[in-house]
Input
Amino acid sequence: MEFSRKEAALEIKGNKSYIEKLYALLGISIFIHYGLVILFSLLLLIDIFVSGEYSRISRNKSLILVETVLGFSIVMSLIYRNYYGFVAVPVLLCVIVGRYYTLAVDEKFKIRNLEWISIISVIPFFTSLIECVSTGGRAGYWFFHNPNYLGSVMMMSAIINLYFFFEKKSKTSFLIFSMNFISIIMSGSRSALGAVLIGIISLLYYFLERKYFIGCLIFIVGYIAGVVSGFFPFLRAESIVRYFWLRVDIIKMAFKIFEKKNILFGHGNFFYYKFTNFVYPHSHNAIVESLLSYGMIGTGVLMVVFLRYLYEIIRNDKKNILKISLILGIIFHNFTDFTIFWIQTVLLFIMALSYKEENKEKRYGIRIYK
Output
């Protein structure tokens, strides 16, 4: 009997080690290619279900609500013959991988893993440079499927590395932050650039002495004013006006769908793509896209889940500045685009928000190096 117990304990320990290795490889793969992310996610899912580990998270209320919304969206996809809506299945599986990481993986491993991920995030700088030189265009198509997805991943990576620069006084983190920022430039994603600026301002407000923060803020606002007046250059500045009105037209089209179709229960994922005869894959706005996919009821449920999660973060510690900065960046980015459901973006977001911060107090007058 005692031998059986020891054997079971060793088996559990061995499986835990295996899962942690898979999550480590999953974190690395985010910055290499989305195909690898899918592969390691599938391997994790197989182990989570086969080993019975799913029972550890199956009763989580937030997960049950998300599963219900995504499951019902598949039903609506069938009703509207929107077979692209079956993408809800891999989205759900991705959520399970992320939720298991949040609820069941060891806290110390999650800390080490994000620190390792922050270093690995330098890889897209080199792959993006090669892509830009080879194609003469925006980076992100080769390894992230879309430049805006690359921009979103690099936006979060830049915020994480700037946080580690302040928190750990690491010159390496600042160097990688700079390379993450340049990668955003190479992606050509203006939304990601705006989002990372919001994250940077949040971190500067927390870590810098007030007079230095005000100086940095004046510099950023001054540059923005110079861009608006046409004095300073900006990312793809020649197409800003054209793309602004294109976004307006895309949103108008979405409201026409609401008038003609079903706003209450939705139509399943990627219905916008079907409605526009496969011209635009989505509405470039997370709220509008959620209403199209899951309706007012499903969107309301998802908002409750998100707001509850946000409340728990702030309630547990109002000094969770990394999480707050990332959430502000993601919210801004997804007002003008729809990147959060892309597999590389959502998994990095979940892993980053699972990191346990050790901020003791707000440090005005911090000296980065003695």
Remarks:
- Residues 6-10, 366-370 have pLDDT under 50 and may be disordered.
- The CA atoms of residues 185 and 207 lie 25 Å apart.
